[in-house]
């Protein structure tokens, strides 16, 4: 029974995954094809004396003169063989660029993910425990305000305060300027990572906090908790015994679902802090009309977000037997 359920679940996720990639590929290719930016001009850049004949040869080499359907078929066939093309900006294979940049972005996103989860869950618990009192009112206003503030604005403020005025953190980059990569210490990397990670964590911590607060308030207003209060049980004991186990699963699920927000926010955070990650590469590819790199990052981001949502569903199903049993009955 368990093996049959695993096979069904795996097949369902595989179908969704393939369908998602096909849809993302088609939509992304159409949008890029409709872009008014000339890829040939972006490729030659500021090189002088490039004749029309040379431009025509470049366009023919990249297949830009072929019909869109034919270009998409060639591109899709290359993808199936693991060839994502060559970046026009970096003059290197797209997969090499993605692998290199994603390593830096992964450290940034994981750190921000931990910051947002711990900070959001803690603040949400405080608001829920002190529902209606001054800590709840103040923290709720702060969270609602943070939901409306753009990531790049937070990053600029953090740079002005913590880097320019106080001098606690560097202005940007992932390593000290002028220091060879093999000589950079772990502490130096962490020092450059903290501020952009903290900026990125502000993108989702408020949602986690508000969601946790609502769940905890519902639990604390339930009949069995009211009975526990009447029996003289302390506030901390009620939160630990009754509240924590009921709000932890929704918080974890929402936290795993925030991968898409973190990935999207990393583009702005990395741009503000000149952090050499995948977000900055996506921004450069968009501004420079680097079509192969832009399409490759788009597909990779879709896979990244899909895996994050899939992990959230799997963890929620494993941790909550009622959800899993209900799903089995539906099947």
Explain what you see:
With 331 residues, this protein is mainly alpha-helical. The protein contains 15 helices and no strands. The longest helix is centred in the middle third of the chain and has 36 residues, at 94-129. The protein is globular, with a radius of gyration of 24 Å. The two termini are 13 Å apart. The model is unreliable at 323-331 (pLDDT under 50).
Write the layout of secondary structure elements.
Blueprint: H1 2-33, H2 39-44, H3 52-61, H4 68-80, H5 94-129, H6 134-148, H7 151-165, H8 186-201, H9 205-220, H10 223-230, H11 235-256, H12 259-272, H13 278-287, H14 291-319, H15 321-330
Helix pairs in contact: 1-14, 5-6, 5-8, 5-9, 5-11, 5-12, 5-14, 6-9, 7-8, 7-12, 8-12, 9-11, 11-14, 12-13, 13-14, 14-15
Short summary:
With 331 residues, the chain is an all-alpha fold. It has 15 helices and no strands. The two termini are 13 Å apart.
Rounded to an integer in angstroms, the radius of gyration calculated over CA atoms is 24 Å
Give the strand tally. 0
Query: Biggest sheet, in brief?
Result: none
Category by helix and strand content: mainly alpha
Any low-confidence stretches, pLDDT <50, length ≥5? Answer: 323-331
Spatial separation of the terminal alpha carbons: 13 Å
Overall mean pLDDT score?
Answer: 75
The gross shape turns out to be globular
How many helices in DSSP terms?
Answer: 15
Q: How large a portion of the residues is in β-strands, by DSSP E?
A: under 5%
Q: What is the H/E string?
A: HHHHHHHHHHHHHHH
Helix proportion range: over 70%
């Amino acid at each position: 029974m368990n093996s049959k359920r695993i096979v069904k679940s795996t097949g369902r996720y595989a179908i969704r995954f393939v369908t998602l990639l096909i849809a993302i590929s088609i939509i992304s290719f159409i949008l890029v094809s409709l872009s008014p930016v000339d890829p040939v001009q972006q490729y030659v850049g500021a090189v002088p004396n490039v004749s029309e004949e040379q431009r025509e040869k470049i366009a023919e080499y990249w297949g830009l003169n072929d019909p869109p359907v034919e270009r998409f078929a060639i591109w899709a066939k290359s993808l199936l063989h693991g060839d994502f093309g060559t970046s026009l900006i970096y003059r290197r294979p797209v997969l090499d660029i993605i692998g290199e940049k994603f390593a830096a972005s992964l450290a940034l996103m994981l750190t921000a993910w931990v910051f947002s989860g711990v900070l959001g869950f803690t603040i949400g618990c405080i608001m829920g425990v002190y529902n209606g009192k001054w800590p709840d009112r103040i923290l709720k206003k702060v969270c609602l305000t943070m939901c409306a503030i753009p990531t790049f604005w937070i990053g600029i403020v953090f740079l002005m305060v913590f880097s320019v005025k106080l001098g606690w953190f560097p202005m940007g980059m992932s390593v000290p300027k002028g220091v060879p990569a093999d000589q950079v210490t772990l502490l130096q990397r962490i020092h450059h990572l903290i501020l952009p990670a903290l900026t990125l964590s502000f993108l989702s911590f408020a949602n986690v906090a508000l969601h946790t607060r609502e769940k905890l308030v519902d639990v604390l207003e339930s009949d069995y908790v009211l009975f526990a209060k009447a029996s003289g049980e302390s506030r901390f004991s009620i939160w630990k015994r009754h509240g924590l186990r009921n709000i932890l699963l929704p918080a974890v699920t929402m936290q795993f679902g925030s991968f898409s927000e973190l990935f999207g926010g990393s583009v702005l955070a990395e741009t503000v802090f000149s952090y050499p990650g995948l977000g900055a590469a996506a921004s450069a590819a968009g501004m420079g009309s680097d079509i192969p790199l832009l399409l490759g990052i788009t597909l990779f981001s879709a896979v990244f977000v899909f895996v994050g949502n899939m992990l959230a569903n799997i963890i929620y199903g494993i941790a909550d037997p009622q959800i899993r049993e209900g799903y089995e009955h539906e099947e």
